[in-house]
Amino acid sequence: MTNTHHKDESSKSCTFQSVSQSSGIPRETVRRKVSILQNKGWVSRGSDGQLSVSLDAANALADETRHLLFQQNDAQAAIDAES
User: Which pLDDT tens digit goes with each residue over 60-80?
Assistant: First the structure.
């Protein structure tokens, strides 16, 4: 998998600590999970400790996200049809 990272002004980055604080997930758990994502090439960690999501992650997840959205829309349509 090619690891393509694009940084621009709209890119957002964070740290283990900021993810932990905003999500309520323990920092060590965040570190372990991010390590898995780094191994997949989906997240990189800069020398300053900042985490960034790669385009590889977006590309890999795009089809699944689209599929889940269609499922959600189909489920909502079925609920609406029953009403």
Answer: 888 888 888 888 888 888 898
Fill in the DSSP letter of residue 1.
-
Q: Judge whether residue 17 has pLDDT over 60.
A: yes
| C-alpha dihedral sign at 40, 45, 51, 53 | negative
Interatomic CA distance for residues 17 and 51, integer angstroms:
11
Give the whole-angstrom CA distance, residue 75 versus residue 78. 5
Read off the tokens for 41: 């090439």
Residue closest to 28 by CA, chosen among 40, 37, 19, 39: 19
Residues 6+ apart with CB under 8 A from 54: 3, 4, 5, 41, 42, 43, 44
